[in-house]
Amino acid sequence: MNISEFAKEAGVSVSAVSRYFNDGYLSDDKRALIEAALERTGYMPSYSARTIRTKVTKLVGVILPKLSSESISRVTEGISEVLSAEGFELLLVNTANDYKREITSLELFRQNRVDGVILLASVFTDTHRALLSKMRVPTVIVGQQLKGFNCVCHNDLGAAYSMTKLMLDKGAKRPAFIGANQDDVAAGRDRRRGFEKAVTEAGITVDPKMCEIAKFSMDSGYEKAKLLLSGRKKPDCIFCATDNIAAGVMQYCRETDISIPGDLMIGGVGDSRMGKVLYVPLSSVHLHYKTAGREGANMLLSEMKSGSEVHRILQLEYDIVERESTKRG
Amino acid sequence: MNISEFAKEAGVSVSAVSRYFNDGYLSDDKRALIEAALERTGYMPSYSARTIRTKVTKLVGVILPKLSSESISRVTEGISEVLSAEGFELLLVNTANDYKREITSLELFRQNRVDGVILLASVFTDTHRALLSKMRVPTVIVGQQLKGFNCVCHNDLGAAYSMTKLMLDKGAKRPAFIGANQDDVAAGRDRRRGFEKAVTEAGITVDPKMCEIAKFSMDSGYEKAKLLLSGRKKPDCIFCATDNIAAGVMQYCRETDISIPGDLMIGGVGDSRMGKVLYVPLSSVHLHYKTAGREGANMLLSEMKSGSEVHRILQLEYDIVERESTKRG
DNA sequence: CTGAAAGCGCTAACAA
DNA sequence: TTGTTAGCGCTTTCAG
Question: Are residues B262 and B178 part of one domain?
Fold first, then answer.
């Protein structure tokens, strides 16, 4: 059933029906007539027909690298909360860590189909940048800071610095690092820099042999821990760029009877649910993921309303959460 | 730029352009002309205009109760994997455990906007059922079994039965249960029935005082564990309807020095990542969440293709994963 | 193989 | 307030 059939059924004109659904002027009689017919028929206007006229889709494209990650799903939850309150739906693209799909989705969203885009990417290539600057819909990047674009990000450097400093202040002398892909500026590069800053400030020289790069997984953390802890110079603390990596390290320590925090302190980032229930509860840095999602959505919302081209960067702070894994002395 | 402007730019007719994008007949010359113009202009056809004619949105609505749950995100990942391979995008609605939003989203999807719907709900009311039978687009329910509708579900009863039996076979005599909301047929009712079946079969009478209902959270598991373990009749094993609940129980045991599995065996359901790294690794039942998502998507796909009205129910089996928390003798 | 033209269902300008 | 009507950008007959 379309609007004119429905109008006939209701005994009113098409414009009356259109006005009913668009807060237009309408007398109470007509309104009642329409509501009665609505009850009878269950008519609903077609979104696409509306979109073709108004150019408004009430859809926001969300591009993310994976779904089954605690941090990403928290961000998405924040996004969803704010946008759905404003009547937007999420058009979700899970790129499964495939850069190409990030590009094709951006391409897909570039022209039409959505009113705005939120991008949660880990690595930005030149292709990303080129495409992003050609976007014709408002776009916000969450979780990374990219000059010249709207971003909501975390203070990754500060988070890593504080966590490392915490362990150093407790007397650690041989700090080690297990980080993430350095092409990922936030979780990779900045967290490494934070670690290095704290170490250097403590008057210790950063030893490249004490630094490993892992994948975002427990297994990878386990492997890197084995590498670091079976060398001759043994670390007395390990800063891990994510809680997942830290959990892997802990697994290894458990199997090899390395006592935590006695022999080795461990610190992570992300304050995941898992960290709290590990066999030694994990000290970590709480990052405000859900808030990042909310703020990203708010930024997008105001961008969509104003249509302005001012770029803004919002950096969220962090909280140190100390648990047993660093509780020495 | 619209199709006719673009056609002019390319020096071909509107229909040629349309055919280019729709695998229609087209000579190589025109094809080349169009591709050249595409390069120049970056033109992309409008989805809504296409939809208004073809009635095809290439969108699937996915309704879920929350995002930040390991099981749900794994299901969603499976859905996304299959559907995106077929060129569909996901229109995601996070109802935040609000039944009303489930209803309004179903309502929203009922008529148009999406080509199909996948529903991950925990509780079905009469309103759900009424709305579901009025859906005009193919719909599949994942994670629950609802008579008369397309479902992909788990063998929740069997999973609970096997986990409980495992503990009973190891000599447990005073089994306890911490379950979920009984209105949730899968995670609530069926898992309870599975527990009861195993207990009864072992010649033990199910003691209602040994059964508690928790929320889907660690904290709630902790509280219920306190209740069960501070009574005078102390359980020697607890079957928990979810790993999260089990993690809470374990927290309590750790604080009160109850030894696992010596004093108490614990079994969960879901085989979450967390279970593996708990201070006592948790025995659990692996449910094939990602597969459930994939199969749900496949079912929807074939439903959308055939337009048939045959209802199918697919039940996936489970795997027991035994870890330390039940390793006795 | 090609192009002209008739809609798809809706909104909004315009005239009443 | 109301109703009529001209498009929005596209697909798809239909006649060539």
Answer: yes
